Amino acid sequence: MKKGLSSLITIAILGSSSVNALEIYNDSTNKFTVGGFIDARVINTQGQTEIVNGASRINFDFSRQIQDELKAIAVLEWGVNPVGSSDIIYNNRFESIQDEFLYNRLGYVGIVHDKYGQLTIGKQWGAWYDVVYSTNYSLVWDGNAAGVYTYNKDDGAINGTGRGDKLLQYRNSYGDLSIAAQVQFKNNDFYTCDIEAISESECETLFNNNSSVAQQVEYNSTYGAALTYALTNKLSLTAGMNRGEFEIVYAKDGNTQTVEDLIYGVGVTYGNFANKGLYVAANINKNKNHDTDNLGRLIKDAVGLESMVSYRYDNNIRTFLAYNVFDAGDDYVIQPNFNADPNDTFKRQFAVLGIHYLFTEDTIVYIEARKDFSDFSSDDSEQEKQMALSEDDGIAIGFNYTL
């Protein structure tokens, strides 16, 4: 298999986690490997100190050689919560909100041809992640400005930019150029109301009664694509986009509004985060109706920037500094019924400083600290307080054991 395609498959399977796996079975036709990691940490943020799970996971990778150049693959990955559930409110999806010990992260099947590329179906990392994954190496406070974990820091399943649901995806490489393209075939209908702490069934009742605070939303298929070009063995450029569309029906008058969900951007990477020496990465995106603020209100326009500088020394100490900003400015809420002040400001902005000590490549002890510079200004003091609740300074000390 070509090196470029193999690299992209690894990204699709494991995201930005350490690339490691334990081979369980191999008879030259069938191969089965197990990978993942266990991560636990002590974290202090938002006035609380707790021991929490660090997005621990286990994945199973199956492959079967069908012909000389063709094989079938299947991947299953579950998030694992080895320390139990937690009530703390987190800034990013560095700690799963799931109560279950196991919960689905990835699951897809497909075929891989040495010349014609890879075709997969299922829940998998979206093509957009190829553009921005290189700044997502903080173990605790990963980026939340690249448009991956949309809809108030979820996993990007809805619009296919993160661990997308129901994706049909194609990947291949041609020399130094790698491509990814996808379609997300789905149909989601749901109800939303401009009321806090309301169930969807209650919201549906309000919609059927023509309430002015209720809407019905239909979110259908999406598509996306990404390009990665290796200028040298250390320097690469990325570019890509993702687009969806949903229709809002307002209960009060029956009027409809068609809304485009769009993100596009570019990235640059120098070096390899796992190797000794200098590593630099940055990406910038422009997005439209692609994400929500911390109150769940749709943002009509925003710009996101993520950047990271890291250096791994000969003594196996790795340091890094990351800076992320997601700026929607003011007058950013699209829905007329939210009664948002046009002067409300949404600017998520923070820096992370980290020190990792690598006993081995797959056994790491770390400390990471976050400083928040966000601006959630509003004339409504209570609303401003709620907006800032999930963003805060913090410090964490943890241990990461990769299989």
| CATH top level assignment | Mainly Beta
- Compute the separation of the termini in Å: 24 Å
State the shape.
globular
CATH superfamily: Porin
Summed up, the helix count is 5
Task: Output mean pLDDT.
Answer: 87
The total of beta strands comes to 20
Spans where pLDDT lies below 50 across 5 or more residues: 86-98
Supply the number of structural domains.
1
In CATH terms, what is the architecture? Answer: Beta Barrel
Rg from C-alpha positions? 21 Å
The run of helices and strands is: HEEEEEEEHHEEEHEEEEEEEEEHE
Q: What would you call the structural class?
A: mainly beta
Instruction: Give the fraction of residues assigned to helices.
Output: under 10%
Report strand order across the widest sheet: 2-4-5-6-7-8-9-12-13-14-15-16-17-18-19-20
Question: How would a textbook summarize the main sheet?
Answer: 16 strands, antiparallel, barrel
Approximately how much beta-strand content do the residues carry?
A: over 45%
Question: CATH fold name, please?
Answer: Porin
In words, what does this structure look like?
By secondary structure, the chain is mainly beta. The chain has one domain: Beta Barrel (Porin). The chain has 5 helices and 20 strands. The protein has a 16-stranded antiparallel barrel. Strand 4 and strand 5 form a beta hairpin. About 3% of the residues have low confidence.
